[in-house]
Design a protein that fits this description.
The chain is built from 16 helices and 15 strands. With 459 residues, the chain is of the alpha+beta class. The protein folds into two domains: 194 residues, Recoverin, domain 1 (Orthogonal Bundle), CATH 1.10.238.10; 177 residues, no CATH class. Helix 1 runs parallel beside helix 6.
Length: 459
């Protein structure tokens, strides 16, 4: 390669540690060797077929072609911006990708800034100069998310989740793509130019994260300083054989990072109407004494929504919780609604009271909750017009007063430490073993005297 090209490539290589540079420079040779490519002068470029043999393992063909056209359009001129597609030294003519273009692509996707990644993303969305339409960006993001999901499945990083017992994956991909694209600040005519994409990549961290994952896994780039992202929380103690969960993998990829620090592992299913029946009492047994929980609801019109409770639930006629609580929507849109600071009506759970509402609520006020499940079970409401005062959420259900289709409760924090961790089995109460019994006793208003008669724990 010439001196100008050498300078451009050396600047990119300088972003990697000395021990990482041979790995980056060796990707080109590995791709050719893996595809049975020629050696010597005839083997100076990478073809689409060679890239399909590597990236095609973890990504749909449409995504492989996007990556290839991006590499082909990378300019090798020092003065030209990457991926401008205007340099006479680029391989956009279809001859193939030269070694220098691959190195620049790797450096800008794996160690680049939002400003450096934006031209690459624009070229992956559409070849040539000019702005992209919002629907083109959405199609690119769908391909990118599908690639990440495929990587998680094929590499065994599902963390105990079983996609075949969960919601529709393709629907989840579209919903997550729409959520990510909702952060775009398009021009008045609905176009996304380079500056729009740069701002979007800077603010929407998933774009860079997913792109890095695709490139690292697809091209088999193993960097010493790279931390492999998990994306999914661990799932434990869940009986999948009879479960049909409301969650899907892309929805988990969105919801898990929304949980506050210190909460999020492992997730454990505590209640499902499909497994445990339509019982408010049984649902409360799952909610009580399990720490932070995630509640998922599907109404009979198909809307899926829920709320995160930052504290363990208590049966009492007062509001509880703190500002870490939030409401969310899964279908028809994927959104999270955080606290507004207007009031502290975060969580409410009550039963068998004559003067106070009986049921579970989050946000708003009595009679006008952002999310409400009646203690009779089967009925609820989301009266949030124009918005819920506590969370700023709109109406989450299809109709203001809805009928219940199904409910799930997930414990999302570390499980409580049992009293017999050190072998003290005799210290456990029957109320610890059967939380449903405790729930029933508390709902009747009776005092649980045995709670104060426990033997003190050993230091």
């Amino acid at each position: 390669m010439g001196n100008t090209e050498s300078v451009a490539v050396q600047k990119r290589l300088a972003r990697f540690r000395p021990e990482e540079r041979p790995e980056v420079e060796g990707v080109f040779d590995r791709l050719q060797a893996g595809a049975g490519g020629p050696s010597g002068a005839a083997g100076t470029t990478l073809t689409l077929e060679m890239l399909q043999g590597s990236v095609g393992r973890v990504a749909p063909d449409s995504m492989v072609r996007r990556v290839y056209q991006c590499m082909c359009n990378i300019s090798l001129g020092e003065a030209a911006s990457p991926a401008s597609g205007t340099s006479p030294t680029s391989a956009a003519s279809g001859v193939g990708v030269v070694r220098e273009q691959l190195v620049i692509f790797l450096a800008d996707t794996l160690r680049g800034t939002a400003e450096e990644r934006a031209p690459l993303v624009l070229t992956m969305i559409q070849p040539g100069a000019g702005a992209a339409k919002c629907h083109q960006v959405a199609e690119f993001v769908e391909d990118l998310i599908s690639s990440v999901v495929q990587i998680l499945v094929q590499s065994g990083r599902l963390q105990g989740w079983q996609p075949e017992r969960m919601g529709d994956m393709s629907s989840g991909v579209k919903l997550l793509a729409e959520q990510m694209c909702s952060e775009l600040k398009a021009t008045d005519n609905g176009e996304c130019d380079l500056s729009c994409l740069e701002d979007w990549i800077f603010r929407t961290s998933q774009v860079s994260l997913y792109l890095e994952m695709l490139v690292s896994e697809g091209l088999n780039v193993s960097l010493s300083g790279r931390v492999v992202p998990t994306l999914l929380p661990p799932c434990r103690e869940t009986h999948w054989n009879e479960l049909s969960s409301l969650l899907d993998i892309p929805t988990l990829m969105f919801l898990a990072p929304q949980l506050p620090d210190g909460v999020g592992a492992p997730w454990r299913l505590l209640f499902s109407t499909g497994l445990h029946g339509e019982s408010f009492t049984r649902m409360m047994a799952g909610l009580l004494n399990h720490g932070p929980t995630l509640l998922l609801i599907k109404d009979t019109k198909g809307h899926v929504f829920g709320g995160f409770a930052s504290h363990g639930w208590e049966i009492k006629p007062q509001f509880q919780g703190d500002s870490r609580c939030f409401l969310f929507s899964v279908f028809p849109t994927l959104r999270v609604y955080s606290t507004t600071g207007y009031n502290e009506h975060f969580m409410y759970l009550n039963h068998n009271q004559q003067t106070m509402p009986n049921g579970l609520g989050m946000g708003g006020q009595h009679g006008y909750f952002g999310l409400w499940l009646d203690s009779d079970f089967g009925r609820g409401h989301s009266r949030a017009r124009p918005k819920c005062t506590t969370y700023g959420s709109p109406q989450l259900s299809a109709e203001e007063d809805f009928s219940l289709d199904s409910v799930e409760v997930w414990a999302v924090g570390k499980p409580p430490v049992p009293d017999d961790d050190e072998g003290g089995v005799g210290k456990r109460s029957i109320l610890d073993i059967d939380p449903e019994a405790l729930a029933i006793i508390e709902m009747t208003g009776k005092t649980v005297h045995s709670q104060g008669l426990r033997e003190p724990e050993d230091d």
